Amino acid sequence: MLGILSVMLGIGVGVLSRLHFARFGALSIVRSVLRSGREAAISTGLPVSVVCDRESKRVYDLSVRPIGLWHFEDEPLPNARGAFGLDLVRNNARIGPPGRIGSALICAAAGDGAEALVGSLAAWRLADGFSVEADVRPDRDQAATIASRGRQWKLVLLTNGALEAQVALAVEAGSPKTAGTAVATTPPGVVRAGRFTRVAAVYDRIALTLLADGVPRARVYVSEPVLADESPFRVSDREATFLGAIDEVRVGAVVPGDGRALPRDVAFDFEAPRMEVRFQPDGTLDPAFHDAPVTIPMAFREGGRREIQVGPYGTVR
């Protein structure tokens, strides 16, 4: 078939083969990574961004890789066992019912909490971003720390039921020189005393997003790396103790995926250094980031131009 077409078009079979692969292979590559990113957002319940990098001619995701998980179902043990060999050392807090499912970490007095000595573990460097999630049931309206890591980041509850996340930024990855603090705060009443709410904070060097029960409630757009810090990971806090129950704590690191490279005869055809497509936890486009369907143009060396479009519901065409 290619031989017949090459004769009709007056070009060589090799040129036609490269043109055929460039056109259809490149489109398939970009669509595949976009769909994988959307599926990752749905499966994790967290926002995921897909990046099209014009200079490197690569497309990759910025999704969350789990690095910490605690269910609090091991009451007889002195510490709370977790995934990846990380235990939470309890500081007077107890493990017991009622949790959201089974047991929870119960903080009943000032100073109660738990911590994991993550130190300089490579997975916990978090320069490119992180996520932290937990089911929380405060006993009363209070200003308290839900989870934190030294100066690096903090997820707190305010007295009016709002969530707030604070992330210390660096001028460049691994640098001790600060570039300020990113702060996102939800409206009041997102978390209420006496009932469980699933809270989450995600920072991926595109935005700092706060979620409550899977719904994005606040975001600020920042792009600096996270400040390096080798402090322990803490649930609750000795000074701003969370009085109530905390269940199913998850921590993740945002890691740029390996992604896929475009064929050498294809390039992204936009002026910016890169284009981001941001999916919400339900797989739709983030309307705060995209005010219209996203169009990704690609140009071919032999001539011609094709576009991939991502619709408001996250469908890729």
Low-confidence regions: 1-13
Silhouette? elongated
If you consult CATH, what is the topology of the largest domain? Jelly Rolls
What count of domains describes the coordinates? 2
> Roughly how many Å apart are the termini?
27 Å
Can you count the beta strands?
A: 22
How much of the sequence lies in strands comes to: 35-45%
Q: Residue share in helices?
A: 10-25%
Concise overview:
The chain has 317 residues and is mainly beta. It is built from two helices and 22 strands.
Please render the helix and strand layout as text.
Blueprint: H1 2-9, H2 13-44, E1 48-53, E2 58-70, E3 79-80, E4 88-91, E5 94-96, E6 104-107, E7 113-116, E8 130-138, E9 144-149, E10 153-157, E11 163-170, E12 178-185, E13 197-203, E14 208-212, E15 215-220, E16 233-236, E17 244-256, E18 260-261, E19 266-268, E20 274-279, E21 294-300, E22 305-310
Antiparallel strand pairs: 1-2, 1-20, 2-17, 2-18, 3-4, 4-7, 5-6, 6-17, 7-16, 8-13, 8-17, 9-10, 9-16, 10-11, 11-12, 13-14, 14-15, 19-21, 21-22
How would you describe the overall organization of this protein?
This protein is elongated. 13% of the residues lie in helices and 41% in strands. The chain has 2 domains: 2-57 and 262-310, no CATH class; 63-256, Jelly Rolls. Strands 1, 2, 5, 6, 8, 13, 14, 15, 17, 18 and 20 form an 11-stranded antiparallel β-sheet that branches. With 317 residues, it is mainly β.
